[in-house]
Write a structure and sequence with these properties.
Length: about 110
């Protein structure tokens, strides 16, 4: 049960039921989190790992294998590539973009 997991005195000490946001700040971080890195196991490790993770891995693998089986040859379409690896001028003028961006031609042979 998630609520009891995050309020267990065996993990959080005698102040487990008290509201104390400072418990995540130094130096108490080392007292509670460092000795037990699995203190928050929701959806990432252990018995509470995401139930769909293996299904997602299987589906991604299946999609990749079937795509490679179906198509004997995969080519880059030159019209879709940037001109000689240059970033288009209009990209540099867009808000939030860096002026020193570069792109590189990448090609893979199967």
């Amino acid at each position: 049960h998630t609520a009891s997991l995050h309020r267990g005195p065996d993990l959080w000490g005698s102040t487990a039921l008290e509201f104390d946001p400072d418990q995540f700040l130094d130096p108490r971080v080392h007292e509670y989190l460092t000795p037990n890195p699995f203190i928050f196991p929701l959806f990432n490790i252990g018995p509470r790992i995401c139930l769909g993770q293996q299904l997602a891995y299987s589906n991604a693998s299946f999609f990749l294998v079937r795509s490679l089986q179906r198509f004997g040859r995969i080519e880059l379409v030159e019209e879709a590539m940037l001109l000689r690896g240059k970033v288009p001028k209009e990209w540099k003028e867009e808000e939030g973009r860096f002026t020193d961006e570069e792109s590189f031609d990448v090609c893979a042979m199967l």
